[in-house]
Fold this protein.
Amino acid sequence: MLAGRRALVTGSSRGIGADTVRYFAEAGADVVINFRNKAPRAEKLAAQLGELGVRAIVQGADLTDPESVAVMMTAVREEFGGLDILVLNASGGMESGMGEDYALKLNRDAQLSVLDAALPLMGEGSRVVFVTSHQAHFIRTTPTMPEYEAVALSKRAGEDALRERIPELDERGIGFVVVSGDMIEGTVTATLLNRLNPGAIEQRREQAGRLYNVSEFAAEVARAAVEPVPADHTRLVGDTASFGG
């Protein structure tokens, strides 16, 4: 289905990113596994995906450093000649010791920087997917846990900044989709939030009826890269009844 296509997923050495990149490879795409500091995991995943008969390359990059991003895109151009799918999955802001503006740097500025660096590699018919959470997507109308608020606001700022680029992407024939998910079982963020706010996951599961796991949500992200772009450029995954707007 994706034979001959080339996909880059940021933050894909583990979790949702790793499962998304695996779905692309299983569908026949050549893939770029990007990591910040999980090189052994990324290399191991690349070796597994290479056994599927696709090309899988590993590219370490600090997405908050434009030079580091430029080096990654140069490697992608040299190896693959271009890019058909860009999944902006990497995010953060709950790490300790990163500075108070780190969430905004990573979740807004770095997303735009990666998009800008990738655009020269992308042609008509390619696709950009931005991965976010309901807690961030709906932050303007529905408050979230205090522990997550700064991250949620920064991710919403990133989403808004990317949406402003839709007219330019349309002109280039590049589709853009935001995939927003409820709290996902088994992610680093959910685990951290549950540690800071014991019972948070269980409470959300009861509210929503069920929560998606990492693999299920990654499948939705992968589908967003190939299925028709929704009119509002938004794919909502999981319960939204508790969120306003």
Notes: The two ends are 36 Å apart (CA to CA).
